[in-house]
Design a protein that fits this description.
- Keywords: ATP-binding, Cytoplasm, Kinase, Metal-binding, Nucleotide biosynthesis, Nucleotide-binding, Transferase, Zinc.
- It is an enzyme of class 2 (transferase).
- It is found in: Cytoplasm.
- The chain is an alpha/beta fold.
- The chain is 47% helix and 15% strand.
- The protein has eight helices and eight strands; from the N terminus they run βαβαααβαβαβββαβα.
- A hairpin with a 5-residue loop joins strand 5 and strand 6.
- Helix 4 packs parallel to helix 5.
- The protein is globular.
- The termini are close together.
- The structure holds BIS(adenosine)-5'-pentaphosphate (AP5) and magnesium ion.
- Magnesium ion binds next to helix 1.
């Protein structure tokens, strides 16, 4: 099964993705995570992406499309399918992905749309903490680690993303409304979208997500 998870910044895509990967053993393809890893390695791709990400702006379509294409080509085990998290997020990306998927087993089967009022997202992103080592996602209120700044899973140090500020969130929300919302309409017209109330507690969002994926 090939799944796409959509939602605004902080809606819970990464949190649900970890659960989907554990349950369905699919490959997780998060374009944001790939860019952050490239930035960490100091590659040319990472440096190009950083100039946009730090401001909350989308990285140009061509850069993202080429990166996803080469990532999928290198994927060794495609048998359980994949989970796209944060891509496609413009109509041009959706159309480029359709062109890539045509005649192959890459077509998206299901879209999970995490819906939440924008006002609730500032608290989500400013309270987020992530493990430097294993990527586990925490929140200082809704999902705190047992010891401050230490990962429960691996003992790694927790960090805050550079774009997790109210200023950057404002730009990311504008990008979401103008560029990403039309992508949801695009997949809606194909009849493959399930909308989920992402303002619920994590366990309830997961129950609804699982129900949608097992349908
Ligand atoms: P990306 O990394 O994709 O960031 P984003 O879309 O802004 O989404 P986030 O990762 O911030 O949020 P999330 O939905 O994953 O929430 P999470 O589960 O962590 O992209 C970053 C940047 O990269 C973009 O701005 C752009 O520059 C670039 N980029 C990436 N892809 C691109 C593309 N395709 N095209 C162009 N540019 C691209 O949860 C957030 C917090 O809330 C956590 O603390 C979590 O614990 C908590 N939480 C989650 N669910 C709940 C719940 N139900 N109740 C209470 N708390 C919850
Ligand atoms: Mg994420």
């Amino acid at each position: 099964m090939n799944i796409l998870i959509m939602g605004g910044p902080g809606a819970g895509k990464g949190t649900m993705s970890a659960k989907i990967v554990e349950k369905f053993n699919v490959n997780h393809i998060s374009t944001g995570d790939i860019f952050r890893s490239e930035i960490g390695k100091g590659t040319a791709l990472g440096m190009e992406a950083k100039s946009f990400m730090d401001k909350g702006l989308l990285v140009p379509d061509e850069v993202v499309n080429n990166m996803v294409k080469s990532y999928l080509e290198k994927l060794e085990d495609k048998k359980n399918g994949f989970l796209l998290d944060g891509y496609p997020r413009t109509l041009d990306q959706a159309k480029a992905f359709d062109a890539l998927a045509e005649g192959s087993e890459l077509a998206i089967d299901k879209v999970i749309a995490l819906e939440i009022d924008f006002e609730k997202l500032a608290d989500r992103v400013t309270g987020r903490r992530i493990c430097k080592e294993c990527g586990e996602i925490y929140h200082i209120k809704s999902k705190p680690s047992k010891t401050d700044n230490v990962c429960d899973v691996c003992g790694g140090e927790l960090f805050q993303r550079k774009d997790d500020t109210v200023e950057s969130l404002t730009v990311r929300l504008e990008e979401y409304s103008s560029q990403t919302a039309p992508v949801l309409d695009y997949y809606d017209s194909k009849g493959i979208v399930t909308r989920i109330d992402a303002s619920q507690p994590i366990d309830s969002v997961w129950n609804d997500t699982l129900t949608a994926l097992e349908k």
